[in-house]
Amino acid sequence: MSTLRLGDTAPNFDAETTEGKLNFYDYLGDSWGVLFSHPSDYTPVCTTELGTVANYKPEFDKRNTKVIALSIDDLASHKGWVKDIEETQNVKLNYPIIADEDKNVSTLYDMIHPNEDDKATVRSVFIISPDKKVKLTLTYPPSTGRNFEELLRVIDSLQLTAYKKVATPANWKHGEDVVISPSVSNEEAEKLFPKGFKEIKPYLRMTSQPED
Ligand code: BEZ
């Protein structure tokens, strides 16, 4: 599989997981999705990441987003490790972890970077929209735990773009002013944003964050 790029269709797959066998597209349904890999079970950074995502599950739910993790360790290993995650991170695991022993999914999503480590996945993230398009790819090194607040922020931004025709500026946080997408004319903007907008330049128009 060549590298997946933004706008590509996220490949479907069947997989063994800690919540039983599943089909990825069936699991996602009409939701947004986050597929993320970690290098291996029983490692410290991964333990904190998987616990953090379990704690954030209500935030992903609020955003109509299903999460699913992956490593190439087997199911027995995952099941044993989940007990440690629950004990040490004070949480109940509430999403599936794929046991990608045959490397089917990690190959489809190019999650093994052999010059970094040929026996484990790196920390990949894919955000997938309801039409199964890849909307974000992110690759972190094994030694750096990801910032899941940032993933929520990107999901908020992607959903604002998909549903409200706005984009989000540098360092934007939920509730702050947003940027009107360049494809929206001023006439259309007047209808879409009744509270008004500020034209700093013809291509730089700000408005308050649209309500849900
Ligand atoms: C970890 O997952 O904890 C880890 C993986 C590779 C290097 C350092 C830490």
From TrEMBL:
<keyword id="KW-0575">Peroxidase</keyword>
<comment type="similarity">
    <text>Belongs to the peroxiredoxin family. AhpC/Prx1 subfamily.</text>
</comment>
<dbReference type="InterPro" id="IPR000866">
    <property type="entry name" value="AhpC/TSA"/>
</dbReference>
<keyword id="KW-0560">Oxidoreductase</keyword>
<feature type="domain" description="Thioredoxin">
    <location>
        <begin position="4"/>
        <end position="160"/>
    </location>
</feature>
<dbReference type="InterPro" id="IPR045020">
    <property type="entry name" value="PRX_1cys"/>
</dbReference>
<dbReference type="InterPro" id="IPR024706">
    <property type="entry name" value="Peroxiredoxin_AhpC-typ"/>
</dbReference>
<protein>
    <submittedName>
        <fullName>Peroxidase</fullName>
    </submittedName>
</protein>
<dbReference type="Pfam" id="PF10417">
    <property type="entry name" value="1-cysPrx_C"/>
</dbReference>
<dbReference type="GO" id="GO:0004601">
    <property type="term" value="F:peroxidase activity"/>
</dbReference>
<dbReference type="Pfam" id="PF00578">
    <property type="entry name" value="AhpC-TSA"/>
</dbReference>
<dbReference type="InterPro" id="IPR019479">
    <property type="entry name" value="Peroxiredoxin_C"/>
</dbReference>
<keyword id="KW-0049">Antioxidant</keyword>
<dbReference type="InterPro" id="IPR036249">
    <property type="entry name" value="Thioredoxin-like_sf"/>
</dbReference>
<dbReference type="InterPro" id="IPR013766">
    <property type="entry name" value="Thioredoxin_domain"/>
</dbReference>
<keyword id="KW-0676">Redox-active center</keyword>
<comment type="similarity">
    <text>Belongs to the peroxiredoxin family. Prx6 subfamily.</text>
</comment>
